[in-house]
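re: ur msg from earlier - yeah i can do the S-adenosylmethionine complex, just paste it... oh wait u already did. ok heres what im feeding in:
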Amino acid sequence: MTTRETIKHTTTPDGLPPLRDVIERYELRAKKSLGQNFLLDLNLTRKIARACGDLRDTTVVEIGPGPGGLTRALLIEGARHVIAVERDERCLPALEEISQRYPGQLDVHAGDALETDWNAIIGSHRPVTIAANLPYGIASLLLAGWLETEPWPPWFNRMVLMFQREVAERIVAEPGSKAYGRLSVLAQWRTEARIVITLPPEAFTPAPKVSSAVVEFIPRQTPSPACTSKSLARVTAAAFGQRRKMLRQSLKQLTPMPELLLREAGLDPQERAERLTVEDFARLALIMDRADKTTT
Ligand code: SAM
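and the outut:
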């Protein structure tokens, strides 16, 4: 290889070493237990960063920066500030190098995202965008936590998150489809969710078994009908827990007289969960909220 070719291969837009070199230098062998499938192509991570919109006045919360592929892309694309939470301490020296390249723009918190107090780490930086190539083992759990944020509207004004493609399809699924379920209702009641990028397994190192997709979530300011997220979680758990049964049967675990509840919501008791719209579920949850209030 000529010197010119060598330079071409090792030049990066931020002047930091290519991610493959970073991984080699810090011996960041991917750990399956931490869901480590890294994105090493900066063109790809920059595409994800651009899906976060105009980043110039934006603080981004990133979960699981790993060796820093998406972190660097966010900063290259102009993010004002990145607050990253990483559980794997082996990644911290690589992230420190990025901090030094962007003084005052990157804060790294070593810890578990599932136990993070988001309000505490973002401080006065709000609202923020959440961006992440999520560890798949805890992706749905993290999403559920953000969707159940109280009060609403939340502390973030956009989320751009990578999931296994099958999970992404469940999030954006429409009533009547096979993928439509609890996650679709919970996500679509409070946010506008859409798939913005799909990626084949080979985009990652190591390659996972399945494809992936990036979903953008924009929080709705006033989700309607205005039920509590707690009731919506209960109604959808009951309805989709027995998705093949008629609602008059599956909702028995919520109320001794599900037919009354369903009729009050203007729904056919013989209907099945997968045919109800997000609004139908929120109406059922709102009736339950009102009933709870009158009994307390
Ligand atoms: N952002 C990097 C990228 O795109 O190449 C890495 C993404 S990798 C799919 C998931 C990352 O989340 C890993 O760096 C892993 O160590 C980290 N992680 C796993 N569980 C975590 C947790 N509970 N809290 C914070 N980070 C976690």
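cool cool. The beta strands are 38-39, 59-63, 81-86, 106-110, 128-133, 156-164, 191-199, 204-205, 212-219. ping me if u need the other ligands too
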